[in-house]
Structure of Flavin-containing monooxygenase:
Amino acid sequence: MMRKRIAVIGAGPCGLFQLIALKNDDVDLICFERQSEWGGMWFYTEESKTSTSEEPVHTSMYKQLWSNGP
């Protein structure tokens, strides 16, 4: 019987939780993330403005952000 293959798009909070939930199942997992680090649009560095392919990267983080809740 062939193993299932599952791709998760994005390594932000939701994508990471899906990877964790599926890691013990008998499946082949792969995750695609545009940035070089996990965290999705919640990952921030000064270099987060463009990706390695020089495309603009959307991020909800900014330099002085302490909390994103009300």
About this structure: The chain has a mean pLDDT of 77. Residues 4-42 form one domain. The CA atoms of residues 4 and 25 lie 9 Å apart.
